[in-house]
Amino acid sequence: MNKLIYDKIIELRLKLRYHNYMYYTLDSPIISDSIYDQLRMQLIQLEKEYRQTNSLDISDHILNQIGGKKLYVFSEYIHKTPMLSLNSTNNISDIIYFDKKIKKYIKNTDNIKYYCDLKFDGLAVSLFYENGLLISASTRGDGRIGEDITKNIFTISSIPKKIKGNDIPKKIEIRGEVFMKKSDFFVLNQSRISNNKKIFSNPRNAAAGSLRQLDHTVTKQRKLMFFVYGYGLFNYNKTINSHYERLIKIKEWGFPLNKNFLLSDCISNIIKFYNSVNIYRPKLNFEIDGIVIKVDSIILQKKLGYVEKYPRWSIALKFPSFDVETRIIDISFQIGRTGVITPVAHFIPVNICGVIVSKASVYNIGMIKALDLHINDYIIVYRAGEVIPKIRKVLVNKRDKSIKKIIFPLNCLSCGTKLLYSTNLVSYYCPHDFLCPDQNLKRLIYFSSKHGLKIKGLGQKNIIKLISYGYLNTPVDFFNLNTHHLLKIPGVGKKLSNKIIQNIHFSKNVSLDKFISALGILYVGSSSAKRLSNYYMSITKFLYTDYLTLLKIKGIGLNIANSIIKFIQKKNNKIIILKLIKILNIFFISK
């Protein structure tokens, strides 16, 4: 039982670390905030159970991290004071509990005044001013170290380059949100469609992508906006012990402060403010996803302090997602790089907050059963975190005789191989690995991506062309490519072909964990690959391992061990790996 709990803890830690990376570093979240919070609470509970009878490594713990790692395309910026994240909830009753908990912690305090404002859905930034001049700017990063985006911040007209007034502080950190107006987002996407470029999924991603441009002239064209919501370092010669009054002073210094806020010591008034903002938020020309509630007294803020990565004196109350009714018209089945079959529901297109949505992943059989989903069902859809299309529920009362049961294919739609069922994934998967055309395509894309051997210049489109021309079939074929092959591919000129060949040569030096991860073994992601690498320290030892040895490794459970053995014992897979071993310089790095 302890090993099962430990394995689940490791799995949840890895999931949360991955989703942190997708949200904070790549600005591309793939799950909603509520699902993230569920995973986090599940991890906290499991760790609590496990620690009662066992020791547990909590060094570099995911729960203590704020934001994400920097992308290493911008230089590091160390915040003068930590740039913390916020605890959040979408349950109004939690606000009542939040108020009671603070009063209990403070003691002898009947009424506490709270400052409430909008939770903007953009990118948090910190601006450092010295003697009234904007010296530097950065992203949140991991809360301690962010990315230096000073050049790009200088292009935003609503951010003062010089603080106005006579009583300005010698040093101050202004904290706020950079965002893109909905109207500007629409114009930007229309322009990208006209130029055959990939569109942004929402204004937040557009703002974050624009702010992280290496060319600041591109940032300038994107019409980014800024609202201040707080501060870090606040060296002011007058004592101001109110968060609200500090913001009003910051506004006097020339910073834009949104007019929608509330100062109150009454929780019922805060709830009314939350409900009223929720009603009129569709009319706003920028995205918000909730309100933020802060203890107004700076003295009480300091007394309350912090827990984990959050201040005790603040909480975000998120809005529910917009629900829209539509109807299922079909179910398709997609195959991933590890062979897992994912059902995708296609429905009559609907507009959700300015975005046209026509399909949503149903993930697995378990979700189909839980929703009791049928083709031709009327459904309620929403965008989780204002990003990912999801099915909330089936409108069973509107169901008619035209409904059809969703039937999973028995054989792979790509290669015809009989599908196998995974109880762990609650879904079917194709076991044909590199011999399955659709699965193989995604394996090759991943193998050459930055998550694998990082062969720059190829990309999905060129890989598809190379496969169609017969030049690429297995990962081994990447290293047999030459400029003659590449020049036959439409859109690849001499300069790019030489660059790709050069990058292929560079990619031959690869760490053991990266190589294991790049193979695309079911259940084996980058973190599991690191554990395997640290244990075996050589590809040969890993390749000739056995089931019992695998089970000795922390974090490698029954499902992962079984999947590894099945993969490396298949004749075709072993041939590919052995050929790659001869071509590549696979080295071990202790991690």
UniProtKB/TrEMBL annotation:
<dbReference type="Pfam" id="PF12826">
    <property type="entry name" value="HHH_2"/>
</dbReference>
<dbReference type="Pfam" id="PF22745">
    <property type="entry name" value="Nlig-Ia"/>
</dbReference>
<comment type="similarity">
    <text>Belongs to the NAD-dependent DNA ligase family. LigA subfamily.</text>
</comment>
<keyword id="KW-0234">DNA repair</keyword>
<keyword id="KW-0227">DNA damage</keyword>
<feature type="binding site">
    <location>
        <position position="117"/>
    </location>
    <ligand>
        <name>NAD(+)</name>
    </ligand>
</feature>
<dbReference type="InterPro" id="IPR004150">
    <property type="entry name" value="NAD_DNA_ligase_OB"/>
</dbReference>
<dbReference type="InterPro" id="IPR001679">
    <property type="entry name" value="DNA_ligase"/>
</dbReference>
<dbReference type="InterPro" id="IPR013840">
    <property type="entry name" value="DNAligase_N"/>
</dbReference>
<dbReference type="InterPro" id="IPR012340">
    <property type="entry name" value="NA-bd_OB-fold"/>
</dbReference>
<keyword id="KW-0436">Ligase</keyword>
<dbReference type="InterPro" id="IPR033136">
    <property type="entry name" value="DNA_ligase_CS"/>
</dbReference>
<protein>
    <recommendedName>
        <fullName>DNA ligase</fullName>
        <ecNumber>6.5.1.2</ecNumber>
    </recommendedName>
</protein>
<dbReference type="Pfam" id="PF01653">
    <property type="entry name" value="DNA_ligase_aden"/>
</dbReference>
<feature type="active site" description="N6-AMP-lysine intermediate">
    <location>
        <position position="119"/>
    </location>
</feature>
<comment type="function">
    <text>DNA ligase that catalyzes the formation of phosphodiester linkages between 5'-phosphoryl and 3'-hydroxyl groups in double-stranded DNA using NAD as a coenzyme and as the energy source for the reaction. It is essential for DNA replication and repair of damaged DNA.</text>
</comment>
<feature type="binding site">
    <location>
        <begin position="33"/>
        <end position="37"/>
    </location>
    <ligand>
        <name>NAD(+)</name>
    </ligand>
</feature>
<feature type="binding site">
    <location>
        <position position="177"/>
    </location>
    <ligand>
        <name>NAD(+)</name>
    </ligand>
</feature>
<dbReference type="InterPro" id="IPR013839">
    <property type="entry name" value="DNAligase_adenylation"/>
</dbReference>
<feature type="binding site">
    <location>
        <position position="436"/>
    </location>
    <ligand>
        <name>Zn(2+)</name>
    </ligand>
</feature>
<feature type="binding site">
    <location>
        <position position="318"/>
    </location>
    <ligand>
        <name>NAD(+)</name>
    </ligand>
</feature>
<feature type="binding site">
    <location>
        <position position="430"/>
    </location>
    <ligand>
        <name>Zn(2+)</name>
    </ligand>
</feature>
<feature type="binding site">
    <location>
        <position position="140"/>
    </location>
    <ligand>
        <name>NAD(+)</name>
    </ligand>
</feature>
<feature type="binding site">
    <location>
        <begin position="85"/>
        <end position="86"/>
    </location>
    <ligand>
        <name>NAD(+)</name>
    </ligand>
</feature>
<dbReference type="Pfam" id="PF14520">
    <property type="entry name" value="HHH_5"/>
</dbReference>
<dbReference type="InterPro" id="IPR041663">
    <property type="entry name" value="DisA/LigA_HHH"/>
</dbReference>
<dbReference type="GO" id="GO:0003911">
    <property type="term" value="F:DNA ligase (NAD+) activity"/>
</dbReference>
<keyword id="KW-0479">Metal-binding</keyword>
<keyword id="KW-0460">Magnesium</keyword>
<keyword id="KW-0235">DNA replication</keyword>
<dbReference type="Pfam" id="PF03120">
    <property type="entry name" value="OB_DNA_ligase"/>
</dbReference>
<dbReference type="GO" id="GO:0006260">
    <property type="term" value="P:DNA replication"/>
</dbReference>
<dbReference type="InterPro" id="IPR010994">
    <property type="entry name" value="RuvA_2-like"/>
</dbReference>
<feature type="binding site">
    <location>
        <position position="415"/>
    </location>
    <ligand>
        <name>Zn(2+)</name>
    </ligand>
</feature>
<keyword id="KW-0464">Manganese</keyword>
<dbReference type="GO" id="GO:0046872">
    <property type="term" value="F:metal ion binding"/>
</dbReference>
<keyword id="KW-0520">NAD</keyword>
<feature type="domain" description="NAD-dependent DNA ligase N-terminal">
    <location>
        <begin position="4"/>
        <end position="452"/>
    </location>
</feature>
<feature type="binding site">
    <location>
        <position position="294"/>
    </location>
    <ligand>
        <name>NAD(+)</name>
    </ligand>
</feature>
<keyword id="KW-0862">Zinc</keyword>
<dbReference type="InterPro" id="IPR018239">
    <property type="entry name" value="DNA_ligase_AS"/>
</dbReference>
<feature type="binding site">
    <location>
        <position position="412"/>
    </location>
    <ligand>
        <name>Zn(2+)</name>
    </ligand>
</feature>
